[in-house]
Design a protein that fits this description.
about 325 residues, binds threonylcarbamoyladenylate, single chain, binds magnesium ion, 10 helices, eleven-stranded mixed sheet, alpha/beta
Protein backbone atom coordinates (compact mmCIF):
# COMPACT_ATOMS: atom_id res chain seq x y z
CA UNK A 1 0.00 0.00 0.00
CA UNK A 2 1.21 3.49 -0.79
CA UNK A 3 1.97 5.35 2.42
CA UNK A 4 1.30 9.04 2.37
CA UNK A 5 3.83 11.66 3.16
CA UNK A 6 3.13 14.12 5.90
CA UNK A 7 2.97 17.75 4.89
CA UNK A 8 3.24 20.31 7.69
CA UNK A 9 4.92 23.35 9.11
CA UNK A 10 6.71 21.70 12.03
CA UNK A 11 10.39 22.62 11.94
CA UNK A 12 11.10 20.35 14.92
CA UNK A 13 9.78 17.32 13.00
CA UNK A 14 11.96 18.22 10.02
CA UNK A 15 14.96 18.68 12.30
CA UNK A 16 14.49 15.28 13.97
CA UNK A 17 14.12 13.45 10.67
CA UNK A 18 17.15 15.17 9.11
CA UNK A 19 19.25 14.49 12.21
CA UNK A 20 18.27 10.81 11.93
CA UNK A 21 19.61 10.72 8.35
CA UNK A 22 16.19 10.93 6.62
CA UNK A 23 15.12 13.12 3.69
CA UNK A 24 12.75 16.08 4.00
CA UNK A 25 11.19 18.29 1.31
CA UNK A 26 11.98 21.90 2.22
CA UNK A 27 10.79 25.25 0.92
CA UNK A 28 13.20 27.86 -0.38
CA UNK A 29 12.40 31.12 -2.15
CA UNK A 30 13.47 29.61 -5.50
CA UNK A 31 12.10 26.05 -5.65
CA UNK A 32 11.52 23.27 -3.11
CA UNK A 33 14.57 21.20 -2.20
CA UNK A 34 14.97 17.53 -1.30
CA UNK A 35 17.17 17.88 1.76
CA UNK A 36 19.52 15.65 3.74
CA UNK A 37 22.45 16.08 6.12
CA UNK A 38 25.28 17.10 3.78
CA UNK A 39 27.87 15.61 6.12
CA UNK A 40 26.23 12.15 6.11
CA UNK A 41 27.21 10.29 2.89
CA UNK A 42 24.47 7.66 3.33
CA UNK A 43 21.77 10.32 3.63
CA UNK A 44 23.12 12.11 0.55
CA UNK A 45 23.21 8.82 -1.36
CA UNK A 46 19.51 8.43 -0.57
CA UNK A 47 18.81 11.76 -2.33
CA UNK A 48 20.39 10.40 -5.53
CA UNK A 49 18.33 7.23 -5.21
CA UNK A 50 15.00 8.98 -4.61
CA UNK A 51 15.54 11.51 -7.40
CA UNK A 52 17.01 8.88 -9.77
CA UNK A 53 19.79 11.41 -10.27
CA UNK A 54 23.09 10.33 -11.83
CA UNK A 55 25.95 10.39 -9.34
CA UNK A 56 27.99 12.70 -11.57
CA UNK A 57 25.54 15.57 -10.93
CA UNK A 58 26.62 17.27 -7.68
CA UNK A 59 24.48 19.04 -5.08
CA UNK A 60 24.20 22.46 -3.50
CA UNK A 61 24.75 22.77 0.25
CA UNK A 62 22.56 25.21 2.14
CA UNK A 63 23.71 27.23 5.15
CA UNK A 64 21.83 29.63 7.46
CA UNK A 65 24.36 32.49 7.24
CA UNK A 66 27.32 33.55 5.16
CA UNK A 67 29.43 33.51 8.39
CA UNK A 68 29.36 29.70 8.28
CA UNK A 69 30.84 29.40 4.80
CA UNK A 70 34.50 29.25 5.79
CA UNK A 71 33.84 26.11 7.85
CA UNK A 72 33.24 24.32 4.55
CA UNK A 73 35.33 26.12 1.93
CA UNK A 74 39.01 27.08 1.66
CA UNK A 75 38.74 30.54 0.15
CA UNK A 76 36.28 33.04 -1.31
CA UNK A 77 37.06 35.29 -4.26
CA UNK A 78 36.58 38.99 -3.31
CA UNK A 79 33.97 39.41 -6.06
CA UNK A 80 31.92 36.60 -4.55
CA UNK A 81 32.35 38.07 -1.08
CA UNK A 82 30.93 41.31 -2.51
CA UNK A 83 28.06 39.52 -4.25
CA UNK A 84 27.18 37.65 -1.06
CA UNK A 85 27.25 40.88 0.92
CA UNK A 86 25.14 42.84 -1.56
CA UNK A 87 22.71 40.19 -2.80
CA UNK A 88 22.67 37.44 -0.19
CA UNK A 89 20.75 35.74 1.20
CA UNK A 90 18.75 34.94 -1.91
CA UNK A 91 18.69 33.10 -5.24
CA UNK A 92 22.45 32.92 -5.78
CA UNK A 93 24.80 29.93 -5.41
CA UNK A 94 28.60 30.07 -5.28
CA UNK A 95 31.00 27.39 -6.53
CA UNK A 96 33.89 27.44 -4.04
CA UNK A 97 36.90 25.27 -3.23
CA UNK A 98 35.71 22.77 -0.65
CA UNK A 99 37.27 21.64 2.58
CA UNK A 100 37.57 17.88 3.17
CA UNK A 101 34.69 17.95 5.70
CA UNK A 102 32.36 17.95 2.64
CA UNK A 103 31.96 14.32 1.52
CA UNK A 104 32.90 13.38 -2.07
CA UNK A 105 29.36 12.23 -2.77
CA UNK A 106 28.04 15.81 -2.36
CA UNK A 107 30.35 17.23 -5.03
CA UNK A 108 30.60 14.12 -7.24
CA UNK A 109 34.31 14.14 -6.45
CA UNK A 110 34.90 17.73 -7.62
CA UNK A 111 37.12 19.97 -5.50
CA UNK A 112 34.39 22.62 -5.70
CA UNK A 113 31.27 22.73 -3.59
CA UNK A 114 28.15 24.74 -4.45
CA UNK A 115 27.00 26.89 -1.52
CA UNK A 116 23.76 28.78 -1.08
CA UNK A 117 22.25 30.85 1.74
CA UNK A 118 18.49 30.77 1.17
CA UNK A 119 16.19 33.61 2.18
CA UNK A 120 12.96 31.73 2.89
CA UNK A 121 12.33 32.23 6.64
CA UNK A 122 11.30 28.63 7.24
CA UNK A 123 14.43 27.31 5.52
CA UNK A 124 16.57 29.72 7.54
CA UNK A 125 14.91 28.69 10.83
CA UNK A 126 15.43 25.04 10.01
CA UNK A 127 19.08 25.54 9.03
CA UNK A 128 19.73 27.57 12.19
CA UNK A 129 18.43 24.69 14.28
CA UNK A 130 20.86 22.18 12.71
CA UNK A 131 24.57 21.69 13.30
CA UNK A 132 25.16 20.52 9.74
CA UNK A 133 24.47 21.99 6.27
CA UNK A 134 21.71 20.58 4.09
CA UNK A 135 22.47 19.10 0.71
CA UNK A 136 19.39 19.82 -1.37
CA UNK A 137 18.79 19.54 -5.08
CA UNK A 138 15.39 20.55 -6.41
CA UNK A 139 12.76 18.08 -5.13
CA UNK A 140 11.74 16.60 -8.49
CA UNK A 141 12.61 13.34 -10.22
CA UNK A 142 15.74 13.92 -12.33
CA UNK A 143 14.94 15.73 -15.58
CA UNK A 144 11.42 16.82 -14.60
CA UNK A 145 10.14 20.30 -13.76
CA UNK A 146 11.25 21.73 -10.38
CA UNK A 147 8.55 22.01 -7.67
CA UNK A 148 7.36 25.42 -6.51
CA UNK A 149 4.90 24.32 -3.80
CA UNK A 150 4.62 21.45 -1.31
CA UNK A 151 1.91 19.75 -3.38
CA UNK A 152 4.29 19.46 -6.36
CA UNK A 153 6.77 17.60 -4.15
CA UNK A 154 4.04 15.33 -2.83
CA UNK A 155 2.78 14.56 -6.35
CA UNK A 156 6.02 12.91 -7.34
CA UNK A 157 7.98 12.01 -4.23
CA UNK A 158 5.13 11.65 -1.72
CA UNK A 159 5.57 7.89 -1.35
CA UNK A 160 9.36 8.11 -1.02
CA UNK A 161 9.99 10.64 1.76
CA UNK A 162 8.58 10.96 5.31
CA UNK A 163 7.94 14.72 5.53
CA UNK A 164 7.50 17.90 3.50
CA UNK A 165 7.88 21.23 5.23
CA UNK A 166 5.22 23.47 3.71
CA UNK A 167 6.41 27.06 3.28
CA UNK A 168 3.77 28.06 0.74
CA UNK A 169 4.39 28.85 -2.93
CA UNK A 170 7.96 29.89 -3.84
CA UNK A 171 8.40 33.61 -4.26
CA UNK A 172 11.01 33.48 -7.05
CA UNK A 173 9.92 30.30 -8.83
CA UNK A 174 13.09 29.42 -10.74
CA UNK A 175 16.37 28.04 -9.41
CA UNK A 176 19.24 30.14 -8.10
CA UNK A 177 21.80 31.78 -10.36
CA UNK A 178 25.08 29.85 -10.06
CA UNK A 179 28.40 31.69 -10.15
CA UNK A 180 31.92 30.31 -10.08
CA UNK A 181 35.42 30.90 -11.39
CA UNK A 182 36.36 29.69 -14.86
CA UNK A 183 40.12 29.81 -14.43
CA UNK A 184 40.58 33.34 -13.09
CA UNK A 185 37.36 34.69 -14.53
CA UNK A 186 34.17 35.09 -12.45
CA UNK A 187 31.50 33.34 -14.50
CA UNK A 188 27.74 32.77 -14.44
CA UNK A 189 27.24 29.02 -14.76
CA UNK A 190 23.46 28.88 -14.51
CA UNK A 191 21.03 31.67 -15.33
CA UNK A 192 18.55 31.91 -12.48
CA UNK A 193 16.57 33.89 -9.94
CA UNK A 194 18.93 36.88 -9.93
CA UNK A 195 19.19 38.43 -13.39
CA UNK A 196 22.56 38.84 -15.12
CA UNK A 197 22.08 42.64 -14.98
CA UNK A 198 21.61 42.54 -11.22
CA UNK A 199 24.79 40.53 -10.74
CA UNK A 200 26.84 42.65 -13.18
CA UNK A 201 25.68 45.80 -11.38
CA UNK A 202 27.32 44.59 -8.20
CA UNK A 203 30.61 43.21 -9.42
CA UNK A 204 31.19 44.23 -13.03
CA UNK A 205 30.55 42.23 -16.17
CA UNK A 206 30.67 38.48 -15.57
CA UNK A 207 31.41 35.91 -18.21
CA UNK A 208 28.43 33.73 -19.12
CA UNK A 209 29.15 30.06 -19.48
CA UNK A 210 28.04 28.84 -22.92
CA UNK A 211 24.82 27.04 -22.04
CA UNK A 212 25.07 24.44 -24.76
CA UNK A 213 28.29 23.10 -23.23
CA UNK A 214 28.49 19.35 -23.02
CA UNK A 215 30.95 19.69 -20.16
CA UNK A 216 29.27 18.10 -17.13
CA UNK A 217 31.04 20.69 -14.97
CA UNK A 218 28.51 23.20 -16.24
CA UNK A 219 25.68 23.09 -13.70
CA UNK A 220 22.05 22.70 -14.65
CA UNK A 221 23.24 22.37 -18.21
CA UNK A 222 21.98 18.97 -19.19
CA UNK A 223 19.61 19.49 -22.09
CA UNK A 224 16.05 18.31 -21.68
CA UNK A 225 16.08 19.34 -18.08
CA UNK A 226 12.94 20.86 -16.57
CA UNK A 227 10.93 18.96 -19.18
CA UNK A 228 7.23 18.04 -18.98
CA UNK A 229 6.20 14.58 -20.17
CA UNK A 230 3.99 15.96 -22.94
CA UNK A 231 5.41 17.07 -26.27
CA UNK A 232 6.56 20.66 -25.63
CA UNK A 233 7.32 22.97 -28.55
CA UNK A 234 8.79 26.44 -28.47
CA UNK A 235 8.39 28.86 -31.37
CA UNK A 236 6.21 31.62 -32.76
CA UNK A 237 2.72 30.99 -31.36
CA UNK A 238 0.97 32.39 -34.46
CA UNK A 239 2.80 29.94 -36.70
CA UNK A 240 2.58 27.01 -34.29
CA UNK A 241 -1.18 27.47 -33.88
CA UNK A 242 -1.60 27.15 -37.64
CA UNK A 243 0.70 24.18 -37.84
CA UNK A 244 -1.04 22.25 -35.04
CA UNK A 245 -4.63 23.17 -36.08
CA UNK A 246 -6.96 20.27 -35.29
CA UNK A 247 -4.86 19.06 -32.35
CA UNK A 248 -5.77 19.57 -28.71
CA UNK A 249 -3.36 22.30 -27.71
CA UNK A 250 -2.04 23.59 -24.39
CA UNK A 251 -0.91 27.15 -24.96
CA UNK A 252 1.52 28.86 -22.58
CA UNK A 253 1.48 32.60 -23.24
CA UNK A 254 3.23 35.52 -21.58
CA UNK A 255 0.64 38.33 -21.57
CA UNK A 256 -1.01 37.96 -24.96
CA UNK A 257 -4.27 36.10 -25.49
CA UNK A 258 -5.76 33.94 -28.27
CA UNK A 259 -9.53 34.05 -27.59
CA UNK A 260 -10.69 32.88 -31.04
CA UNK A 261 -8.95 29.53 -31.06
CA UNK A 262 -10.85 26.26 -30.65
CA UNK A 263 -9.56 23.20 -28.86
CA UNK A 264 -7.03 25.02 -26.76
CA UNK A 265 -6.31 25.33 -23.07
CA UNK A 266 -4.61 28.66 -22.57
CA UNK A 267 -2.56 29.68 -19.53
CA UNK A 268 -0.84 33.03 -19.22
CA UNK A 269 2.38 33.47 -17.23
CA UNK A 270 1.60 37.10 -16.38
CA UNK A 271 -1.40 39.00 -17.70
CA UNK A 272 0.35 42.27 -16.86
CA UNK A 273 3.59 41.30 -18.59
CA UNK A 274 5.58 41.17 -15.35
CA UNK A 275 8.66 38.94 -15.71
CA UNK A 276 8.90 38.29 -11.96
CA UNK A 277 5.33 37.04 -11.91
CA UNK A 278 6.04 34.95 -15.02
CA UNK A 279 9.04 33.32 -13.29
CA UNK A 280 6.91 32.60 -10.23
CA UNK A 281 4.23 30.93 -12.37
CA UNK A 282 6.38 29.14 -14.97
CA UNK A 283 6.88 25.71 -13.38
CA UNK A 284 3.36 25.40 -11.95
CA UNK A 285 1.87 26.31 -15.33
CA UNK A 286 4.09 23.70 -17.01
CA UNK A 287 2.99 21.10 -14.48
CA UNK A 288 -0.71 22.01 -14.89
CA UNK A 289 -0.38 21.70 -18.66
CA UNK A 290 1.20 18.30 -18.27
CA UNK A 291 -2.02 17.13 -16.55
CA UNK A 292 -4.43 18.52 -19.17
CA UNK A 293 -6.06 16.38 -21.81
CA UNK A 294 -4.03 17.81 -24.70
CA UNK A 295 -1.80 16.49 -27.50
CA UNK A 296 0.91 19.11 -27.40
CA UNK A 297 2.11 22.10 -25.38
CA UNK A 298 3.08 25.23 -27.35
CA UNK A 299 5.02 28.14 -25.91
CA UNK A 300 6.84 31.24 -27.03
CA UNK A 301 10.00 32.88 -25.70
CA UNK A 302 9.58 35.93 -23.44
CA UNK A 303 11.55 39.16 -23.83
CA UNK A 304 15.26 38.30 -23.40
CA UNK A 305 15.85 40.72 -20.52
CA UNK A 306 15.88 40.57 -16.71
CA UNK A 307 14.37 37.30 -15.49
CA UNK A 308 13.20 36.65 -19.07
CA UNK A 309 16.71 35.32 -19.77
CA UNK A 310 16.43 32.54 -17.16
CA UNK A 311 12.81 31.83 -18.11
CA UNK A 312 13.77 31.42 -21.78
CA UNK A 313 16.62 29.14 -20.78
CA UNK A 314 14.15 26.86 -18.93
CA UNK A 315 11.68 26.96 -21.84
CA UNK A 316 14.42 25.93 -24.28
CA UNK A 317 15.54 23.08 -22.07
CA UNK A 318 11.95 21.89 -21.63
CA UNK A 319 11.27 21.78 -25.35
CA UNK A 320 12.01 18.75 -27.45
CA UNK A 321 11.78 20.91 -30.51
CA UNK A 322 12.43 24.51 -31.25
CA UNK A 323 10.20 25.40 -34.12
CA UNK A 324 10.10 28.78 -35.79
O1 LIG B 1 17.58 27.36 -6.29
C1 LIG B 1 18.28 26.35 -6.24
O2 LIG B 1 19.48 26.37 -6.55
C2 LIG B 1 17.63 25.05 -5.75
C3 LIG B 1 17.22 25.20 -4.30
C4 LIG B 1 16.62 23.95 -3.72
O3 LIG B 1 18.33 25.63 -3.56
N1 LIG B 1 18.48 23.95 -5.94
C5 LIG B 1 18.77 23.43 -7.16
O4 LIG B 1 19.57 22.29 -7.09
O5 LIG B 1 18.35 23.89 -8.19
P1 LIG B 1 19.81 21.32 -8.32
O6 LIG B 1 20.63 20.20 -7.76
O7 LIG B 1 18.53 20.95 -8.93
O8 LIG B 1 20.72 22.15 -9.27
C6 LIG B 1 22.02 22.51 -8.86
C7 LIG B 1 22.99 22.52 -9.98
C8 LIG B 1 23.14 21.16 -10.64
O9 LIG B 1 22.92 21.31 -12.02
C9 LIG B 1 24.56 20.76 -10.37
O10 LIG B 1 25.14 20.19 -11.50
C10 LIG B 1 25.24 22.07 -10.00
O11 LIG B 1 24.24 22.86 -9.43
N2 LIG B 1 26.31 21.88 -9.04
C11 LIG B 1 26.20 21.54 -7.74
N3 LIG B 1 27.40 21.38 -7.20
C12 LIG B 1 28.31 21.64 -8.14
C13 LIG B 1 29.73 21.62 -8.20
N4 LIG B 1 30.46 21.30 -7.15
N5 LIG B 1 30.33 21.93 -9.38
C14 LIG B 1 29.58 22.24 -10.46
N6 LIG B 1 28.24 22.25 -10.46
C15 LIG B 1 27.60 21.96 -9.34
MG1 LIG C 1 17.22 20.54 -10.33
Amino acid sequence: MKTHVLIGTNIQTAKELLTAGKLVGIPTETVYGLAANALDPDAVLEIYRVKKRPHFDPMIIHLPHWDHVLKYVEEIHPKFELLAKELGPGPITFLLKRKSIIPDIVTSGSDLVAVRIPKHPMAVNLLESLDFPLAAPSANPFGYISPTCARHVEDQLGDKIPYILDGGPCEVGIESTIVGMMGNIPTIYRKGGYSIEKINDVCGKMLIHPSSSSNPKAPGMLTNHYAPNKHFILGSLDLLLQKYKGKKIGLITFNQSYPDQVNIVEKSLSKTGDLKEAARNLFSVMREMDKENIDVILAEELPEEGLGVAINDRLRRASVDIDN
